[in-house]
Amino acid sequence: MHGFARLGQVEEAEAWMLRAESLGLEPTVVSYTSLVDACAKSGQPGSALRFLRQADQKALATSATYQAAIDACAKQGFVSDAEGLFQEMQDAAFSGESFRFARWSDQLLAWDAAATTQSIISSPIKTLIT
């Protein structure tokens, strides 16, 4: 599954995860994060959000899962969705985890969202930065 995800082949990766589930294996944090990242690589923010929500429902979402979903949205110009996910991630305050803002800040800037990027940069996110 992870091999397909690394290549951005979302449908194939999801098929392998479903196959594993049919055999009684439970998806992990890594499984969902890989799927969300595959969506970012292949330009599928809607699928990224779907997998993020599934991970959330199973208490398997981490800051890395959110970062991949933010990346998926930002790369396609869905700035308000990226902002909303950032706020959700901030509210969740994943303890002990770091957030790499630079991964998607360039995408927001590319979509002419400099003011948004500046407001996020200046927001208090000390608990998320190591």
Automatic annotation (TrEMBL):
Keywords: Repeat. This is Pentacotripeptide-repeat region of PRORP domain-containing protein. PROSITE patterns: PPR (PS51375). PPR repeats lie at residues 28-58, 62-96. NCBIfam families: PPR. PANTHER family: OS03G0856100 PROTEIN, OS12G0638900 PROTEIN. The lineage of its organism: Eukaryota, Sar, Alveolata, Dinophyceae, Suessiales. InterPro entries: PPR_rpt, TPR-like_helical_dom_sf. Coiled coil: none annotated.
